[in-house]
Amino acid sequence: xxxxxxxxxxxxxxxxxxxxxxxxxxxxxxxxxxxxxxxxxxxxxxxxxxxxxxxxxxxxxxxxxxxxxxxxxxxxxxxxxxxxxxxxxxxxxxxxxxxxxxxxxx
Length: 106
Prior knowledge:
Blueprint: H1 6-13, H2 18-26, H3 45-63, H4 69-93, H5 98-104
């Protein structure tokens, strides 16, 4: 599943500052996805995780179009679509402005 060695995971957990955390993270396989620049005010950790998961699912589907990857990718994308619809509906219900709604949609 995860491509982090236990020593890397331990080092991430014991990082004393956010800068040292990102320095350690940059040396791992996930460093290109979870960069300090990506975590600006408009992107949350959930948004980045969702983007990475979507890339992995779509890439798996493209590599193996006649496998179960097609079904899992379809279900993953439908789940994200339903999540976005619920989020947008709730944001409209509570009167959030459009820019806040767009930030909440992953």
